[in-house]
Write a structure and sequence with these properties.
alpha+beta; Nucleotidyltransferase, domain 5; 3 domains; 4-stranded mixed beta sheet
């Protein structure tokens, strides 16, 4: 069995479900293809004070610990290249970039440091800030024109009206949602990122239509419905069923 030193957010969700249903550590390790010591360590380090294990809480504790040890992590050109690519060509938020790198064991600084890098780039005349959803440049879908431009997103709320408590990341439960389109426009996934903790949820889509995206988003968010205050998206027609 391969010995994984890192447990992903998706594996934490599965671990929580198995643990809640009484599976032993040995059975959990087999189901998740993790070494038993990894499962033991995860349950010991990231369970709640009274002993229960919750994926959201575990990820939050883990991220806090990572931030504590990442203070001395040096920002290098490799990280800069990843950030530039994800911003310019995929319009990812700093939270998504950080979450993706953590999930895939790619060295990366915190999302706060990424925002700082974007600000420094702007001060030096750079244009990275234009690729943020709050930038001055109008967001452009990366996979071309919509097939049905007549679709209207009803009852949408402008990001300019978003409360400061969300903009300042003062609480848990404010999320950002986006879609990522595969090569040659084949396949798609939806990502939902909790802004304060960078906790990321990912799910494959069977289609790029609003009905499919809404259905899969609900399935993703059900375990965290008590921790959902808001969800921010762009104006893509795939979000037409946002309500």
């Amino acid at each position: 069995m391969k010995n994984y030193n890192h447990i992903s957010n998706h594996q934490r969700i599965e671990l929580a479900t198995l643990h809640r249903n009484g599976y032993s550590v040995s059975n959990i390790s087999k189901q998740l293809k993790l070494h038993r010591s990894t499962v033991y360590r995860e349950l010991k380090r990231n369970s709640r004070p009274r002993g229960s294990y919750d994926a959201y809480y575990a990820n939050e504790v883990s991220e806090i610990r990572k931030e504590r040890f990442a203070k001395n992590r040096k920002f290098n050109t490799q990280m800069m290249g990843v950030i530039n690519e994800k911003l310019e060509f995929q319009q990812w938020s700093p939270e998504q970039i950080n979450g993706y790198c953590n999930k895939n064991n790619i060295p990366m600084v915190s999302h706060e440091r990424i925002y700082q890098y974007i600000h420094e780039d702007k001060e030096n005349g750079g244009k990275l800030f234009e690729h943020l959803r709050t930038g001055k440049k109008k967001y452009k879908k990366r996979y071309g024109k919509h097939k049905n431009p007549r679709i209207i997103i009803k009852n949408k709320v402008s990001i300019d009206e978003r409360p400061e408590i969300i903009n300042n990341k003062e609480r848990y439960g404010d999320w950002e949602i986006d879609t990522i389109i595969g090569k040659n426009h084949k396949g798609a996934i939806v990502t939902v990122v909790e802004r304060k903790s960078s906790f990321i949820l990912v799910r494959k889509l069977k289609g790029k239509n609003a009905e499919e995206l809404a259905k899969q988003t609900i399935r993703l968010m059900v375990p965290y419905k008590e921790l959902v205050h808001s969800i921010t998206s762009d104006n893509g027609t795939e979000f037409a069923n946002h309500e």
